[in-house]
Amino acid sequence: MDEEKQNDETNQNKENVKKTAEEVKGETINTFNQVKDTMKNTDFKEEAKNTKGFLLELMSDPIGLISSVAKGERSILKTGLFLMVVTIAINIIESVIRVFRYSGFHFMTFVRDITYPVVYVFLFAVIILLLNKNNKKSLLTILEVILIAYIPTIINNAIGLVTTIVYNSTLSSIVGCLTGAIALVGTVLKYFGTKELFGEEDTSKMIRTFFVVMLIHQIGMFVIGLTNLI
């Protein structure tokens, strides 16, 4: 009897895993298609102009912006994609500088510079998709929220590029303090973004949930890093 119950539980677990895998696959395909269509229809010159206003809004009311996107009241996909293109371009420029300044061209380093921001954001979004059982959101909505939280990292990448071009030890020390503070802002935005997506009002429970999300994400990035793709 116990063995039969155990077999039923095992089969149920397998069904749940299969169902979850199909859900993630479906969400990923749907999100990819929407991103692809948005990329085709985005005027990046126009989006560059709009980004200034978006960043000012982010600085003036970050929580309100995150909340409106998490609730599906607005979309920032075009701006988010533009900023991702910017950070990938920054990484590529840094790669080119390293080629001429240091040890030559390394193809896998070049690949990592392109894939890292995409993998970072996508993995974070998928983890939330899998863990968020009580307040379901589409993968696209989650991605948009995480893109907002990733903006401080993009700013740090831009600052890093400047310090790479204009290298100065004193400047590097000052910039190190600045980028540390900006990275902290990014963590805070990730917390509030995760909180809005989960819809969790209990602060203690939300802190635990956020810790789990961050831990799984760090482990995931480490494991993926072993493949040399990021």
Core attributes:
230 residues; mainly alpha; 8 helices; 85% helix; globular
In short:
This protein has 230 residues and is mainly alpha-helical. 85% of the residues lie in helices and 0% in strands. Helix 2 (44-60) crosses helix 4 (77-101).
Task: Give an overview in words.
This protein is an all-alpha fold and 230 residues long. It has one domain. The chain is built from 8 helices and no strands. Helix 3 (62-70) packs across helix 7 (169-198) and helix 4 (77-101) packs parallel to helix 6 (139-165). The longest helix has 39 residues, at 2-40. The radius of gyration is 20 Å and the shape is globular. The protein starts with a helix and ends in a 5-residue tail after the last helix. The model has no long low-confidence stretch (mean pLDDT 86).
- Any idea what the radius of gyration is? 20 Å
Largest sheet: none
Low-confidence stretches: none
Q: Can you count the beta strands?
A: 0
Strand content: under 5%
Separation of the first and last Cα atoms: 49 Å
**Apparent shape:** globular
- Helix percent reads over 70%
Q: Quote the average pLDDT.
A: 86
List the helices and strands and how they pair.
Elements: H1 2-40, H2 44-60, H3 62-70, H4 77-101, H5 107-131, H6 139-165, H7 169-198, H8 203-225
Helix pairs in contact: 2-4, 3-7, 4-5, 4-6, 5-6, 5-8, 6-7
